[in-house]
Amino acid sequence: KVLIDVPCSDLAEELAQSETKVQVLQDTLQQVLDRREEERQSRQLLELYLEALKTEDSILSKVAEPQAAPRKEMDVVDTGTSSTDTSATTALSNQVLASLKEKPAPELCLDSQDLELVLKEDAAGLASALGWDTQKAGALQEACEQELSKRLRQVQTLHSLRSTSKGKKTLP
C-alpha cells in the first residue's frame, strides 16, 4: 500500500528504474491489493451465506417441531388463560424471557421468530414480564428490531445470490 501511494517519480528515482517500470509495478501491486480485498469480501459473503443457511434450517426445524406436538403446546396456553398473567408472559415462553433477562445481548441469542414475538409485545407488558423499566424494555425491542432487520437483509442477499447463481453454469 505504501509503495502504491508513493509518487511514481520518487519511487523510480529511489529504485533507479524508469517511471514506466515503476508505474507497471504500482499497477501490479494495486491489482494484488484489489484481488485480496475481493477475496476477503467473498469470504465474508460466503460466511453470511452459510450463516443464513443455518438460520434457514433452524427456522424450518422450528416450524416443523410445533406441528409434531401441537396438543401439548395448546394445553399449556389453555391452562394459562385462566390466570392473571400479562400478555407478555402468555405470548413469550419462559425460555425466551430467561434469555432476555440473562444474556448481555439477547437479540443475538434468539431466533428470528422469537425476535418477531418480542417486537409484537407492548413495551410496558414486556417491561412488566422482565421486571425492567419501560425504557430498558424499549431499548431491548429496538436492538431486536435491528437484529431482525440485519437478518432479513442477509436473507435477501442470499436470495439474490441464489438467483444470480441459477443463471450461471457450475464449474467442473
TrEMBL record:
Residues 2-118 form the DNA fragmentation factor 45kDa middle domain. The keyword Zinc-finger does not apply. Residues 77-88 have a biased composition (Low complexity). The keyword Coiled coil applies. Residues 63-88 are annotated as: Disordered. It comes from the Eukaryota. Pfam families: DFF-C. Residues 8-42 form a coiled coil. Keywords: Coiled coil. This is DFFA factor. The lineage of its organism: Eukaryota, Metazoa, Chordata, Craniata, Vertebrata.
